[in-house]
Design brief:
Length: 638
């Protein structure tokens, strides 16, 4: 067993680390889970401008991803339906209705220009070996914008989970620009399906939001749902509405789904019911309103880290400057290499250095002659002439030498110098260059990525206040059953499914519990009523109980209790005789021995005490029976 424990301790940690880092939690740098990154890398490898069968893309991605094709296919469809990186062709399912996509052999996809522009730059990307060592895959993609916020993410790992809502692309880029300028910014989610959201408890991505459907209430006799809450399909929404109607929580007539490209669910109301009466119930008891808890967990520095919106924006603002600097330095090197090459070519031809090798027979001599010919021009060239440079010059064809245009070459070198000055200027002012590059993205994609959800401060629906009191609580004294599905007996009161019930049995025990369709309480039930705060504070129980054959009276309120726990109103050696909640009554006692003294005792003469109090002995005389009678003289007293 100790050996098994050792294996568990060792391998479970490895398994947990694998699930956290390599499957469930996206990376801070590019907002992608490994399977998503491998899919995009495969599309980049295959990119030729044409559409590719999804089955082929999945097969290619399996060279990077050590899992089955089904998980890759599902991840690809989900990523494509975000309509950010992947251009789709065919039936990729319907995110509004929940309809599934076609098989992978029938649908096609390719990379959008947007993703190639902002995600891929192999020269500044770090690569590692794939799982089998046959290929190289990126550690993360060099994303220039905060993709964790734009894409959103959900994932469950060992002992942790992440849930990040998608944000509007343009708003995220504008927040990144504000961060580069050192300005304050606010950023809130944008639900792809639209609707209305309340972000008052968003807490920088680690609180919660309320997401509501957008309803058309122009006709008072019907409700039309035009936009959905986050993560809700028309099928699941209709199911929740029908379930609420079956439970008598809301009253509706018919519900029809006309959804195609846009959501349109029509709810017709029964006669005498108007949409204003149903609205609160829809929000409280159906998926027309949902609360979404959030947890912004990402992989950072090779371990999970809880981040905030501000921290993610700040990280990506720094990353943008870092990536742009690397790109500009690479561009500067390319320009310098090209200028060096063109300068050598001009000198080689104009100064006729090529004529020095006409009589030389050996390769070594040829290289030496060319190097010697360039010696006097080295101050002009500004860089050492290498053997690779000489090799390139020797490959210039005779026709090109004979038709050489020195003016055109000088113009080209001059243009390269201008480009170099421009790159140097960008390097000297990277923040402004970064802001301009983001402005370019906003200008080109701003119209496509408009905000879809509306931010509104919503009043949280209290289901207990909204719930209809349409359940009839019955008690059948013959069977001893209490509940809203009990047959026979009398209706005691109306209540909702969320109410609590207080009942007192004939032995003096009482209990508070949730509403039940049918619950055995026994014959001789003394009391049953609602156990809400108002009732508990207003109802006074007056009970007569027998102890050692003496009459005792006790008055109390039942205001504190634990649900479904049994309590007693009388001592262990006491037996309850009568109980009432009426106020204008007196107790009439028949004592064992006849007496001329008064045997009528108004209950207002006795104090109301705690439920644990033992009560007061009415008379030190044995009694036969007791009952409550009207006490008219009590009227008007306090």
């Amino acid at each position: 067993m100790a050996y098994v424990g050792k294996l568990f301790n060792e391998y479970f940690l490895k398994y947990a680390s694998h699930v956290i880092r390599d499957r469930a939690i996206p990376h801070l740098n590019d907002g992608l889970k490994p399977v998503q990154r491998r899919i995009l890398q495969s599309l980049f490898d295959m990119d030729d401008g044409n559409f590719h069968k999804v089955a082929n893309v999945v097969g290619h991605a399996m060279q990077y991803h050590p899992h089955g094709d089904a998980s890759i296919y599902e991840a690809l469809v989900n990523l494509a339906n975000k309509e950010l990186f992947i251009d789709k062709q065919g039936n990729f399912g319907n995110t509004l209705t929940g309809d599934p996509p076609s098989a992978s052999r029938y649908i096609e996809c390719r990379l959008l220009p947007f993703s190639k522009e902002l995600l891929f730059q192999p020269e500044i990307t770090d690569f590692i070996d794939s799982y089998d060592g046959r290929r190289k895959e990126p550690v993360t993609l060099p994303a220039k914008i905060p993709l964790p916020l734009i894409l959103g993410a959900e994932g469950i790992a060992v002992g942790m989970s992440t849930r990040i809502l998608p944000h509007n692309l343009i708003e995220v880029i504008q927040a990144e620009q504000a961060c580069l300028r050192g300005e304050e910014f606010e950023l809130y989610p944008d639900i792809p399906s639209g609707g209305i959201i309340d972000v008052s408890e968003y807490d920088e991505g680690n609180g919660k939001i309320l997401s509501r459907a957008r309803l058309d209430l122009s006709d008072s006799k019907r409700i039309v749902i035009r936009e959905l809450p986050y993560g809700v399909t028309t099928e699941s929404l209709i199911g929740s509405i029908e379930a609420a109607a079956r439970s008598n929580k809301i009253r509706i007539g018919t519900i029809i789904d006309f959804t195609t490209e846009n959501v349109e669910i029509e709810i017709k109301l029964p006669r005498g019911v108007y949409n204003s009466e149903v609205l609160d119930g829809l929000y409280a008891f159906t998926d027309c309103e949902i609360s979404i808890p959030l947890n912004m967990l990402l992989i950072h520095d090779d371990k999970p880290a809880l981040m905030t919106v501000k921290e993610i924006i700040e990280h990506h603002a720094r990353t943008l400057i870092y990536l742009l600097e690397k790109e500009l330095k690479l561009e500067r090197e390319r320009i310098l290499d090209k200028m060096h090459s063109r300068t050598l070519e001009k000198i080689f031809i104009v100064e006729k250095i090529y004529k020095r090798i006409e009589q030389i027979k050996t390769i070594k001599g040829i290289f030496a002659a060319i190097h010697k010919g360039f010696e006097i021009f080295l101050p002009t060239i500004g860089r050492e002439v290498t053997d690779e440079d000489v090799e390139r010059l020797l490959k210039i064809p005779i026709r090109r030498i004979s038709q050489f245009d020195i003016q055109r070459m000088e113009n080209e070198i001059r243009e390269l110098g201008g480009s170099l000055d421009k790159v140097e200027g960008y390097l000297n002012n990277l923040v402004e260059y970064g802001l301009n590059s983001l402005d370019s993205v906003i200008e080109r994609y701003g119209r496509k990525f408009t905000r879809r959800s509306e931010i509104v401060r919503l009043k949280k629906s209290d289901i207990r206040e909204i719930a209809q009191k349409n359940l009839r609580m019955r008690y059948n004294p013959k069977t001893g059953y209490l509940g809203y599905e009990v047959s026979g007996g009398n209706v005691l009161f109306n209540m909702s499914i969320y109410d609590k019930v207080l009942f007192v049995k004939k032995d003096g025990s009482y209990m508070v519990g949730n509403v039940s369709s049918k619950f055995f309480v026994g014959r001789g039930l003394l009391y049953a009523g609602l156990a809400d705060k108002e009732t508990c504070e207003s109802v006074v129980f007056t009970l007569i109980y027998r102890k050692d054959d003496y009459p005792y009276i006790k008055r109390c309120r039942i205001s504190s209790f634990i649900l479904n726990r049994s309590y007693s109103l009388v001592p262990e050696d006491g037996a309850i005789v009568r109980l009432t909640t009426k106020e204008q009554v007196a107790v009439l006692i028949d004592f064992t021995q006849e007496s001329s003294t008064n045997n009528r005792f108004p209950i207002h003469n006795y104090l109301i005490k705690g439920v644990k109090a033992r009560g007061v002995r009415i008379r030190p005389r044995r009694f036969k029976s007791a009952r409550f009678v009207s006490h008219k003289s009590f009227a008007g007293r306090k």
